[in-house]
Amino acid sequence: MTLDDIDFAQLYRQHLSQSQRQPKAPADWDRRAPRMGRKSLGGPYADTFVERMQLAGSRSVLDVGCGPGTIALLLAPHMHRVVGLDYSPGMLEQLMVNARRLGLSNVTPLECAWEDDWSEVPVCDIAVASRSGMVPDLAEALIKLNAHARHKVYMTQLVGGHFMDPELIVALGRQPRSFPDHLYTLGLLHTQGIHAELSYIEMPSRLAGASDFDEFAQRVSWSLGELDDEERARLHHWYSTDSERAARGGAPMRWALVSWTPPSPS
User: What backbone phi and psi angles, to 5 degrees, belong to 159?
Assistant: First the structure.
């Protein structure tokens, strides 16, 4: 067997199913939107993402899963047009609140999901999918990104298959399940004859910096679902026995930044 014999699209779907991931509904993100929208723009992740982009000659950006504008609003001063696409109305509201606060008039919100019909989604010079690529059908998502980008596509995806330290999950008494990561994207692009560029962005755990145990437990619940009393007690033991580890939130996260030139329309 060679790489050309592997059905990466089917393998991705199987892996996602085995992970038993429970996707978040738009309402889940709506509830988080005001807090996320209040965060200052920029930061190590977003700044690194934008620094590695090639913007010369591009005048428009489509940001898929834009959230409150983490990437889109950093790009807007360099672009003629920025389209922020998200399935959460609350996130799009925060996108526009932040755009107005920054005096940006070239940002357009578009309520749409990966699974929706994209016939009304505009084609832009650049398409971005920052930490939004855990989708039911990755092959279809890549087709949509390629069809809506003239010059370049930039996508960040999980490295290693875990959103938090697997040792913490084991400490809760649960079995850590890996999620599909960036290697599926590289495989799918390879089958299309696309030679992607790859780099990595390492970040502190999303659990890092919690002000107290209650906030820490809320962050864990967001990723893993509600904790029962025994799991909460186990988490408290993990949190309280090593203050430095608790402050770090366990092992850091790594994101793969995959970029490529979309194939020309036939």
Answer: -110, 130
List the structure tokens of 249: 């939130």
* pLDDT tens digits for range 206-223: 899 899 999 999 999 988
Domain contains 266: no
- pLDDT, tens digit, 9 for 90 and up, residues 158-197: 998 888 888 999 999 988 889 999 999 999 999 999 999 9
pLDDT value, residue 266: 57
Measured CA distances, 220 to 23, 28, 214, 223, 250 (Å): 15, 15, 10, 5, 12
Name the burial class of residue 226, with classes exposed (0-12), middle (13-18) and buried (19+) by CB atoms within 10 angstroms of its CB.
exposed
189, 196 in Cβ contact below 8 A?
A: yes
CA atoms within 13 A of residue 177's CA, in its CB half-sphere: 13
Q: Are both 91 and 190 inside the same structural domain?
A: yes
Sheet holding 197-203, edge to edge: 107-111, 81-86, 60-64, 124-130, 149-158, 253-260, 197-203
Whole-structure pTM over 0.70, yes or no?
A: yes
- Do 226 and 186 belong to one domain? no
Q: Which two tokens stand for residue 198?
A: 């790859």
Distance CA 59, CA 75 (A): 10
Does 169 map to a domain?
Answer: yes
Number of domain units in the chain: 2
- Please tell me the predicted confidence (pLDDT) of residue 206: 85
Residues 196 and 216 in one domain: no
